[in-house]
Write a structure and sequence with these properties.
The protein is of the alpha/beta class and 365 residues long. It has one domain. It has an 8-stranded mixed sheet with strand order 3-2-1-4-7-6-8-5, with helices on both faces. Helix 3 links the parallel strand 2 and strand 3. Helix 1 packs across helix 6, helix 1 packs across helix 9 and helix 2 runs parallel beside helix 3. The protein is globular and about 70 Å long.
């Protein structure tokens, strides 16, 4: 019995971390779609580009300038900054930078600010970005192209690259490259299982208002798939965003993120497969369910492992925190701290609930 439990837990971890990616690569080899651009500017949809901002005075002017400089017909683009209870002058900085609309909202959280901006908009497409994310010049054209190609597509996420210009120990870039590998193949097979906050868009009539503690990144794709939409990645729509410099700061950021993710897992419908195609359910189970229950599987595998293997696991844990900047050690530390962040995020959510508000992580602006 003990051996069976160990191999079950180890097998599920192996599938979640490696086997799933290998299976996707074998099933879906062509994962680089070339969505054709609309024939002319007249065929482009109107777009409201929405930036929810709290205490972003230092970066909001650069973000607005980046949005206004996009290669997109100016008459069809509205740049909206939704200030979520900012008291640092973000509103004035956004207006001075030339934002078309600046909403001065009471503190309610990122999702509430996004909802308010969408309610005010009449654009065909609502696009979203973080205040510290910079888009490439053609990113918006590329982002909206799938909507013109397939009327079943309700959500499109672009591809964000995380940069660490000051160096540091964070290994998020390695993880993110693997995540993009998985996401591209999920998109080609049916729909992505999660997006990102730096660059994404929905049709105006596909947008849904969700609980303010439940971020769009995880909640939107599976919710829209349940409503009959496809949710895809557009790898040609590029943005960059500054990452937390060190691995410990990344773990703290992930802990906050996971508090929001657990609200979606436990109360937001992520565990309910009703309304999903079978292959999408398989992707959610492999990429989301097993990822979030990974810490529990690790504990089970540790407690039920043969003695020699348990000792090896404990030695590996200790070695990951050795005072060195060697890449393999940093990757191991990143993985262990990420697993801890998932568990601690659940602890925070169960103990205190999840607040709707957020603050920019230190080092990312």
């Amino acid at each position: 019995m003990r051996r069976g439990i160990f191999w079950t837990a180890a097998g599920l971890l192996g599938w979640a971390q490696v086997g799933y990616g290998a299976a996707l690569a074998a099933i879906e080899r062509d994962a680089d779609p070339r969505w054709p651009d609309p024939a002319s500017d007249d065929d482009l949809p109107t777009v409201a580009l929405i930036v929810a901002a709290h205490a972003e005075r230092d970066v909001i002017a650069a973000k607005v300038a980046n949005a206004l400089a996009l290669d997109y017909p100016r008459a069809k683009l509205e740049v909206v900054v939704a200030c979520d209870g900012s008291t640092d002058g973000t509103q004035d900085a956004a207006r001075a930078a030339g934002a078309d609309v600046v909403l001065d909202l009471p503190r309610g959280g990122k999702v509430a600010a996004q909802d308010a901006a969408v309610r005010r908009s009449t654009a065909d497409v609502v696009a979203f970005s973080d205040a510290n994310a910079l888009w490439e010049n053609d990113a918006l054209r590329k982002l909206v192209a799938p909507f013109a190609t397939d009327t079943r597509i309700g959500y499109v996420c672009g591809r964000v690259s995380f940069i660490n210009p000051d160096g540091g120990t964070n290994q998020e870039g390695v993880y993110w490259r693997y995540e993009m590998f998985l996401r591209a193949r999920e998109s080609a097979l049916h729909s992505v299982t999660a997006g990102n906050g730096a660059i994404y868009a929905t049709r105006r009539d596909a947008y849904v208002e969700v609980d303010p503690v439940m971020g769009h990144d995880l909640k939107f794709p599976f919710t829209l798939v349940r409503a009959g939409w496809r949710c895809v990645e557009q790898p040609q729509a590029h943005a960059t965003e500054r990452m937390v410099p060190d691995v410990e700061g990344e773990a703290a950021r992930k802990r906050r993120m996971m508090s929001h993710a657990w609200a979606i897992v436990l109360h937001g419908g992520l565990l309910d497969p009703r309304g999903w195609p079978a292959k999408y359910t398989m992707m959610i189970a492999s990429h989301r369910w097993l990822r979030y229950f990974g810490p529990a599987l690790h504990v089970i595998a540790l407690l039920t492992a043969p003695k020699w293997l348990r000792r090896a696991q404990l030695l590996g844990l200790a070695a990951a925190f050795a005072p060195t900047r060697a890449k393999p050690v940093l990757l191991a530390k990143y993985y262990i701290l990420t697993q801890g962040s998932i568990a601690l995020g659940l602890y925070d959510h169960l103990r205190e609930g999840t607040p709707a508000g957020w603050s920019p992580p230190e080092g990312t602006r």
